[in-house]
């Protein structure tokens, strides 16, 4: 049996941040007004630790190019909705809001960076909207880190620990992928463009369509139940709460954002609490695969709605989505089911190959 490195095997000390970073500089952006958002481009980093700070991607042009900053750094979040005091590690070049301060040092790499961020986040509780993190506060902050016998930060241990942890996670993930590939049967089916399609009312597809219930921020009780709202990220999860009264819980259904990121649609396999900014769509006869297919088609509703035109309870009853059909012109759920199964088998194999290749390459560095 391989002996794993343990955090308890090392001596830890509070290290001043200012002593281990060679340079601290704020992001160069002041908002997205003069930037062009694209699907693939330069990551734009906002004052959030969600999605590793990435808010969107912007075009690399004459204006934005001057704002690009080097990667391999730690971003210290100055303020933000629940993110003040947190940190992120950025591996590649990016553009950032000036609400994040970036630290550069020779000891930083992917592994030491991830270790440092986790240790640093233990001090985030001292910051809030009323007490923002600035350069002065940052220079006074200390982070608990493992140290060598000489009392210096043990960067080698940090790197070795994260490398080991990452390998263990990758091994588990590959087992998961291989397991699902083995139990998900690939079948030859007609291509999408070979199928006939037809519009169907949502109310004819889903026997249960119901909006969630408003839960104000100040009413949130800390807990472990996903709170799904109108976010286009992270399956719509906006928080984790413990509220049990005056809430609406659902599971194994679709969540459709009726405002905010209107039209965002996700399959929710777990029990969650729905805000009034999402509508749940449920059909107990649908499998996970059928739900995933329909979620993709339902997202097309975003093309006709926006922040000022929401999907009301009245409008959703008039909405239609396009679906593949059988010879008798009913929704071909069997086809949808197998189409997603085939897609997942292909993706599982791609992920497995890509992860194995990347891990071997990094292990050699």
From TrEMBL:
InterPro entries: Restrct_endonuc_typeI_TRD, Restrct_endonuc_typeI_TRD_sf
Pfam families: Methylase_S
Biological classification of the source: Bacteria, Bacillati, Bacillota, Clostridia, Lachnospirales
GO molecular function (one): endonuclease activity
Coiled-coil ranges per UniProt: none
Residue span, Type I restriction modification DNA specificity domain: 12-171, 195-347
Species for this entry: Parablautia intestinalis
Gene Ontology BP terms: DNA restriction-modification system
Organism domain of life: Bacteria
Protein name listed in UniProt: Restriction endonuclease subunit S
């Amino acid at each position: 049996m391989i002996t794993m490195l343990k955090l308890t095997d090392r001596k830890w000390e509070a290290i001043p941040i200012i002593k281990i970073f060679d340079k601290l500089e704020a992001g160069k952006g002041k908002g997205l007004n003069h930037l062009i958002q694209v699907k693939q481009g330069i990551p734009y980093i906002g004052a959030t630790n969600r999605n590793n700070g990435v808010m969107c991607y912007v075009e690399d042009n004459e204006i934005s190019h001057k704002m690009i900053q080097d990667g391999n750094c730690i971003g210290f979040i100055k303020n933000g909705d629940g993110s003040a005091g947190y940190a992120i590690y950025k591996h590649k070049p990016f553009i950032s809001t000036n609400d994040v301060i970036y630290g550069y040092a020779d000891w930083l790499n992917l592994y030491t960076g991830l270790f440092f961020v986790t240790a640093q986040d233990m001090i985030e509780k001292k910051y809030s909207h009323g007490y923002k993190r600035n350069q002065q506060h940052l220079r006074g902050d200390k982070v608990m880190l493992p140290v060598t016998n000489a009392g210096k930060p043990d960067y080698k241990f940090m790197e070795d620990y994260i490398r080991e942890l990452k390998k263990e996670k990758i091994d588990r993930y590959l087992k998961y992928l291989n397991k699902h590939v083995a139990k998900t049967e690939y079948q030859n089916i007609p291509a999408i463009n070979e199928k006939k399609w037809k519009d169907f009312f949502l109310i004819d597809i889903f026997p249960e369509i119901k909006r969630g219930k408003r839960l104000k921020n100040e009413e949130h009780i800390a807990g472990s139940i996903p709170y799904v709202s109108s976010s286009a990220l992270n399956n719509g999860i906006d928080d984790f709460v413990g509220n049990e009264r005056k809430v609406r819980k659902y599971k194994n259904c679709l969540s459709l954002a009726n405002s905010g990121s209107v039209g965002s649609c996700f399959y929710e396999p777990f029990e969650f609490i729905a805000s009034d900014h999402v509508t749940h769509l449920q059909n107990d006869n649908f499998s996970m695969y059928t739900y995933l297919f329909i979620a993709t088609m339902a997202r097309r509703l975003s093309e006709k709605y926006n922040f000022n035109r929401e999907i009301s309870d009245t409008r959703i009853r008039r909405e239609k989505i396009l679906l593949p059909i059988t010879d008798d012109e009913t929704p071909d759920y069997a086809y949808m089911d197998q189409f997603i199964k085939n897609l997942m088998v292909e993706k599982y194999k791609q992920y497995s190959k890509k992860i194995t290749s990347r891990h071997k390459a990094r292990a050699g560095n």
